[in-house]
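no rush on this but wanted to send it before i forget. what follows is a protein written twice so to speak, once as letters and once as structure tokens for the fold. mainly i need to know what kind of three dimensional shape the backbone takes. thanks a lot i owe you, the record is right below.
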Amino acid sequence: MKRTIVALMLFAGLGTAARAGDATLAKVQGRVGILPKGQTRYVLAKGGESLSYGDRVKTHKDSVAQIALEGRGAVLVRGDSSFTITGDADHTQLNFRFGEFLIGLRKALTATQTFKVRTPAAVAAVRGTLFWGKSDESKTTTYAGFGHTIAVTAKGKTVLVHAGEKTTVALGRAPAETAKHDIPVSYTDNFRIGGDLQNLESLVDLPKP
């Protein structure tokens, strides 16, 4: 009986690292927590943990998390962010409560696949690109493009954000018309861990200065 209890304790201690996943928390810097689907307590991440659809990831102040999407691309998240990955490999959605992120898909989706990012203010649909986003304290969302195009929708209106453009969406309002953004490509360095950007720099589609 004693051996059984010890074995169960050891299995529980493995946490998310023991589960087959749909994505991988490839690297972490600082304090990053994982809330597995159906659980009530966060597990402190060390990097290398598997993530399954329905799991939530939370980054603390001054932290960075890099999530690899099984060969499709990556989601890089800065501190004070919280999101859940839902859906499946063909229809993935990231639901951000708040936070700042850099997301890149390395190859275009097929006609039957979808990839969306939802914040309290808007939904961004992506087919294969690199873009930055932030949902702030007022629940206002800003999206800026570094490569190709994303479609941002809120209150029945959709705007297309191309590389070098941005749109801002206030909670309960339609997206603002796009305008040029002044975010330098070097800003993506804020998402690096040990110099690594999960190869997202290859997706930048902006002219070199």
About this structure: The domain at 15-196 is CATH 2.60.120.1440 (Jelly Rolls). The chain has one domain: 15-196. The first strand starts at residue 23 and ends at 29. The chain has one helix and 17 strands.
